[in-house]
TrEMBL record:
Catalytic EC class: ligase
Protein name, UniProt field: tRNA(Ile)-lysidine synthase
Keyword set, alphabetical order: ATP-binding, Cytoplasm, Ligase, Nucleotide-binding, tRNA processing
Cellular localisation: Cytoplasm
Domain of life: Bacteria
Annotated positions binding ATP: 27-32
GO biological process, one term: tRNA modification
């Protein structure tokens, strides 16, 4: 008997608990009528409180008679009924979206409103096994990942799908056996919509020529993939704790992310983008792969994603952040990555970087010496920026560069032209002026980095 099977499913899948307050999305068609009737049969056993919500789309010719049927049906069953009529077509046109998407958006907004105002804890929709199969096949032909192949979830937040394990033919048989009336939606018979074409043409073809039980086969596949996805999502959560760090409107992904399996790294990147952007609309696999490549670029490299969001390499880490409009000064700010050793020409000055022995150190106002044991690879030379801090030579604490330069009576114009040397996240040197206490040469320093800044002759070639 379907009722007993239904009750077993609810308990096994933990879809409904005792004394739940459930609002049924009620169109009056086969699926929603079967759902409401089955819930009514188990209502006393589970101590449920039920209600039904119907949104009149104002589109079909018999939309008003459908609403009247639903109201009468609920009155007969003594189920509280909530309805609203809205012009979905006008909304779709105004919002520049498809009729189907507009209808879905308005339906769920209506359900949310009723749940909040009437105190319902869950909303039950009448998606069934045929819907599940159609969704998986649609996702497959459109191109999808693992999540798309898992189809519709029985539980998503406050929304539950108790019929997801039953074919429509089972629901129809239940209604006919119990002589329960329902409304017929003729748009389900049309092939205008992609889903209807899958339902009316593709599935019957697969059942006839490939597998008469294709729906159950796909259902078993989604069940297996759900378990695989749960495992991956657990691993992603572990990785988030180690490699993903939120800071206001910015998310930092540690450089180690690029070494993780793509199944993990891609999901970390999508999560980071969603945190900053607010959604994943228009984010495609190409964006995720481009962001992974950004890990391998030099520091400072950027990648525009979508809607003012960008990725930026920050010494091997990846920052996902809101793209800021540049000021006039920022458009001309220096940002050069220098490899050690090397000789470079920057802003009319020659900069030399080399490792030396302790005995090679000499007094020269154009040279500064640093603890080379702590510095390797690359140094960034740039102009100062708001919020820059360093630990000045001979001091215990850290100070803002702005305050250091004000104390030294350096004019604003000169401040903006000073060369700031940065290693990883630390400022190690304000050109010609001050080195960092953290990077000074110490008694046990074995390798010394020499940085030279020389004014170039006007005849020097670059």
């Amino acid at each position: 008997m379907l009722t007993n099977k239904f009750l077993d499913t609810l308990m096994k899948e933990e879809i409904i608990g005792k004394e739940d307050r459930i609002l049924v999305a009620f169109s009056g068609g086969i699926d929603s009528v079967a759902l409401l009737c089955l819930l009514l049969e188990v209502r006393e056993t589970l101590g449920l409180r039920l209600g039904a919500a119907h949104l009149n789309h104002g589109f079909r010719e018999n939309a008003d008679s459908d609403e009247a049927f639903c109201r009468s049906f609920c009155e007969e069953k003594k189920v509280p009924f909530f309805s609203r009529k809205i012009d979905v077509a006008a909304y779709a046109k105004a919002e520049k979206m498809s009729f189907e998407m507009a209808g879905r958006t308005l339906r769920y907004a209506f359900f949310e409103k009723v749940m909040d105002e009437q105190g319902f804890s869950k909303c039950a929709t009448a998606h069934h096994l045929d819907d599940q199969v159609e969704t998986v096949l649609l996702n497959l032909v459109r191109g999808t990942g693992l999540k798309g192949l898992t189809g519709i979830s029985p539980v998503r937040g406050r929304y539950i799908r108790p019929l997801l394990f039953y074919k429509k033919s089972e629901l129809l048989g239940y209604l006919e056996k119990n002589q329960i009336s329902y409304r017929h939606d003729h748009t389900n018979d049309e092939v205008e919509y992609q889903r209807n074409r899958i339902r009316n043409e593709v599935l019957p073809y697969l059942e006839k020529y490939f597998n008469a039980d294709v729906s159950q086969s796909i259902s078993r596949m989604t069940g297996l993939l759900v378990e695989d996805l749960k495992f991956i999502e657990r691993e992603v959560e572990k990785a988030k704790k180690s490699f993903l760090h939120e800071d206001g409107e910015q998310v930092r992904l540690s450089k180690e992310v690029k070494e993780l399996p793509y199944a993990i790294s891609s999901r970390l990147l999508m999560d980071a983008v969603q945190k900053v952007k607010g959604n994943l609309k228009d984010i495609e696999e190409v964006h995720i792969r481009d962001l992974l490549q950004l890990f391998l670029k030099e520091t400072g490299k950027k990648l525009d994603i979508k809607e003012g969001v960008q990725g930026r390499n920050d010494y091997g880490d990846l920052l996902i952040e809101i793209k800021k409009e540049k000021t006039e000064r920022e458009n001309t700010m220096l940002h050069e990555v220098l490899s050690i050793p090397g000789t470079y020409h920057v802003k009319g000055q020659k900069i030399t970087l080399r490792y030396i022995e302790r005995e090679e150190m000499k007094k020269d106002k154009q040279l500064r010496f640093f603890n080379g044991d702590l510095i390797s690879g690359e140094i960034l030379v740039r102009h100062r920026d708001e919020g820059d801090r360093m630990r000045p030579f001979g001091m215990n604490g850290y100070r803002k560069l702005k305050n250091i330069l004000i104390d030294r009576k350096v004019s604003r114009e000169d401040r903006d032209e000073l060369l700031v040397f940065q290693y990883e996240k630390d400022i190690i040197y304000i050109g010609h002026m001050m080195i960092s206490e953290d990077y000074k040469v110490r008694e046990k320093t074995e390798r010394i980095l020499e940085i030279g800044i020389f004014e170039e002759d006007t005849n020097d070639s670059k």
